[in-house]
Structures are given as structure tokens and as C-alpha cells.
Design goal:
Layout lengths: L4 E6 L4 H14 L3 E5 L7 H7 L3 H6 L1 E3 L2 H5 L4 E5 L10 E2 L1 H13 L4 E5 L8 H5 L3 E3 L12 H18 L1 H6 L14 H17 L11 H12 L3 H33 L1
Parallel strand pairs: 1-2, 1-6, 2-3, 4-6, 4-7, 5-7
The protein binds S-adenosyl-L-homocysteine.
């Protein structure tokens, strides 16, 4: 399980926090760190704070966008110190660890995403996540240091991994053996862009005033946990709708041309 978990830090500004995160991960047996457009270098302070978890720092993957960091993940969880505008599935760290254990047993990679020290994750970034985790704190002092939040999450992952490994192997997300893997972020995103374009083509969505339609549809599909085959079926339907729309467009153009004759 722990090998399937990626810790993603977005725009981290203090190198010490990157080092402390690596230490927290190594203590708990996690090793995959991804830094999204970091604003701090892996410098002497990072290495010192990592306290002999340098290997994790040296292996850390640096990417330009959150989308790139989570592209191959079947379960993406965003962490947040406060609740946001559109309600999103919310778990505590322990529930998250149980969900991660199941996802891992079903062959999925899992991303745990952590935000900027100053402002956390943006709403758009949080919407890319299947679910959110809030570490329960007192209400009026809810923001942990990012490396300490990573420590709490990695501890819960470890606890789940060592608790009942045999049980996790047998358990599946749906109570039965599933036939296809969950769609990963890249496949789900491709499907959602296709859906968006189709809705624009048929005049359902005005690209200039999209409001929250796409966020709500994204939430629906992420909540359902669609698999790769379901994504293919949906994309097949969208392509058919788009083809039909084109045919109708051509026919209408022909009628218009006929009118003007
Ligand atoms: N001021 C920011 C907090 C940033 S703390 C805000 O209000 O959003 C930096 C990061 O640490 C957060 O983005 C989140 O990833 C993590 N974090 C801090 N406190 C947390 C909490 N109580 N639960 C879950 N994650 C938390």
C-alpha cells in the first residue's frame, strides 16, 4: 500500500518544509514525493530538516502542474485546513487511510495533495480531487504546518498498512471483484473535456458563462469512481452526439442556402 502513495506538495515556499516532509514520509515508510512548481530549492536547510531522508529529496519528482503530478492516479485526495464553497466529499485522515488501502488493493495509485503554506490549495485544485481530508483541529485554529499535516497523514497511512494487510487484500471497493481499473486522472480529465466540448457543441453550455457546471459534473464522476471501460463508453456517446450535431448543422446550412436561392 505505502508504495502506491504519492505525496504531492504544491508551490511550497520554505525548503525546510520540504525537508521535514521527507523526514515524515521516511519515518512512516513512504518514499514518493512530487513537488509541483516549488518556490523553494532543495538546499542545505531542506537536507538538514530531512534528517537523513535525503534519498527522498533526491528522488523527488518536480513537475510544472498539479494535473501532471496526479495524471496516473486513480484516487486523488486534497487536504485542507478549511471548508470551501461547493461541498465536496470530506473524510478524516483515518477514513482516508481506509479508502487508500482499498484503492491500493485494487491496483490504483493514490495521491495525497498538500497546499501552499500561505494560502493552501485553490478551489480549482481542490476540485481535481475525488475527496478532501480535514485533520480535525479546534475550530478557530485549524491550520497545521504543512510538514506536520503530512506527518499526520503518513502516520494514518502506515497504521492502515500494518493493521490488517490480509483483510485489505481481500476487500474490494464494491464488495465484489471489479472487472476494470478505475479511470486515472488523465483519462477522467480527457472524458470531462470531451463532455464539456459536447455540451458547448449542442448549445447546452455557454463557454463564456460556464458557472459551476463543470465543477459539479467533475464532482459527480469523481464521486462515482468511474472505471476505464465506463469512460470509454461515455466518450463513445459524446462522439456520436458530436457527429449527429455536425450532420444536423450541415443539413441546416443546406436548408438556409436553399432559402436564399
Ligand atoms: N492558510 C491556509 C493553510 C495552509 S496550511 C489555508 O487557510 O488554507 C498548508 C497546507 O497544510 C494546507 O494546504 C494543507 O495541505 C495542510 N493542512 C494544514 N492544516 C490542515 C488541516 N487541519 N487538515 C488538513 N490539511 C491541513
Amino acid at each position: 500500500m505505502l508504495d502506491n502513495i504519492v505525496i504531492v506538495m504544491v508551490n511550497t515556499t520554505h525548503s525546510g518544509n520540504i525537508g521535514a516532509a521527507a523526514r515524515a514520509m521516511k519515518n512512516m515508510g513512504l518514499s514518493q514525493l512530487v513537488l509541483v512548481d516549488p518556490k523553494a530549492a532543495i538546499d542545505e536547510e531542506a537536507i538538514q530538516r530531512s534528517s537523513r531522508a535525503e534519498d527522498i529529496l533526491h528522488q523527488a519528482r518536480i513537475v510544472a502542474s498539479l494535473e501532471e503530478a496526479i495524471a496516473d492516479c486513480g484516487l486523488v485526495v486534497g487536504t485542507s485546513a478549511r471548508s470551501r464553497y461547493i461541498p465536496w466529499p470530506l473524510m478524516n485522515p483515518r477514513e482516508c487511510a481506509a479508502k487508500a488501502a482499498m484503492a491500493s488493493a485494487n491496483g490504483n495509485k493514490i495521491a495525497l495533495v498538500f497546499g501552499r503554506e500561505s494560502s493552501g490549495l485553490t478551489n480549482d485544485e481542490l476540485h481535481l480531487c475525488h475527496a478532501h481530508v480535514h485533520i480535525p483541529t479546534v475550530e478557530d485554529f485549524s491550520s497545521l504546518n504543512v510538514a506536520q499535516a503530512i506527518q499526520v497523514m503518513c502516520y494514518e497511512m502506515r497504521l492502515a498498512a500494518i493493521s490488517e494487510p490480509a483483510l485489505q487484500q481481500e476487500e474490494s471497493a464494491w464488495g465484489v471483484e471489479w472487472d476494470y481499473e478505475l479511470a486515472n486522472h488523465e483519462q477522467l480529465n480527457g472524458m470531462l473535456h470531451h463532455l464539456e466540448q459536447t455540451m458547448v457543441d449542442i448549445g447546452f453550455l455557454d463557454p463564456n458563462t460556464p458557472k459551476q457546471t463543470m465543477s459539479r459534473l467533475r464532482r459527480l464522476f469523481q464521486r462515482a469512481g468511474v472505471d476505464k471501460m465506463e469512460v470509454n463508453i461515455l466518450r463513445g456517446i459524446f462522439s456520436a452526439v458530436q457527429r449527429q450535431q455536425k450532420v444536423q448543422g450541415v443539413q441546416q446550412d443546406a436548408v438556409k442556402t436553399g432559402d436564399s436561392d
